[in-house]
Specification:
By secondary structure, the chain is α+β, with helices and mostly antiparallel strands. The chain is 21% helix and 22% strand. The protein has helices at residues 6-24, 87-98, 142-149, 178-182; strands spanning 49-54, 62-65, 71-72, 80-81, 107-112, 122-126, 132-134, 161-167, 170-176, 198-201. Strands 7-6-10-8-9 form a five-stranded mixed beta sheet, with helices on one face. Strands 2-1-5 form a three-stranded antiparallel beta sheet. The longest helix is centred in the N-terminal third of the chain and has 19 residues, at 6-24. The two termini are 28 Å apart.
């Protein structure tokens, strides 16, 4: 049986699929470059390292990690909640706890090894070179995200990538143009990212 007639049909199907997929890329609004990130203070998160300095009391001054449950433990302070607080708030809480043992303690907290709140991390999934969760940093952009994850794979359909963002308590989906940004150097595609954004990079089907 001669099957050469099937080749044009197959190519037609591929072309039709391409048209459908290209339509999918534009069904969401483009991410805006005019978005302004909230000017919030950094909040301690699980995985952060906390350097606790107690003035004139070096024996209780130390560096401790924030546990996965969001708490810290020191020799005189056990299971103190730390996640979700600023370094100043945490310092005041430690002073209250130490006041049972030290007269008028003065505490300074320095956060190192930043991880931050899970709810504020940028998550990159799909056809990225290194899919991962990233700690959000103020004024972070899509270019910063791409550098951190090593760009996209050779099979990625970068211009069909979607950015999922929570706006006023509701999830909104935006289209982002990663190919234009990475391969064409189109800076207009370098949109800001916000705390909690999720970047989904699909693969190309052909």
């Amino acid at each position: 049986m001669n099957k050469t007639w099937m080749k044009p049909v197959l190519w037609a199907c591929v072309a039709a699929s391409a048209l459908v997929l290209s339509g999918c890329a534009t069904k969401h609004p483009m991410a805006s470059s005019a978005v302004v990130a909230p000017a919030n203070d950094y909040l301690v998160g699980p995985g952060d390292n906390i350097n606790i300095i107690v003035w004139r009391n070096p024996e209780v001054s130390m560096s401790v990690p924030v546990r996965p449950d969001g708490k810290i433990t020191t020799p005189l302070v056990e299971d103190l909640p730390a996640a979700g607080k600023t370094s100043t708030q945490l310092a005041r809480d430690i002073e209250v706890a130490l006041a049972k043992f030290i007269q008028q303690p003065v505490v300074t907290v320095v956060v190192t090894g930043f991880v931050g709140q899970f709810s504020e991390q940028i998550r990159v999934i799909g056809a990225a070179a290194r899919p991962q969760s990233l700690s959000y940093r103020r004024d972070m952009s899509m270019m910063d995200v791409m550098i951190a994850v090593g760009g996209v794979t050779e099979f990625a359909s970068g211009n069909r990538a979607n950015l999922i963002r929570t706006v006023n308590g509701k999830q909104q989906t935006y289209n982002v143009r990663l190919n234009d940004l990475i391969r064409e150097g189109d800076i207009s595609a370098n949109v800001p990212v916000l705390p909690g954004d999720i970047l989904i990079i699909p693969e190309s089907f052909f």
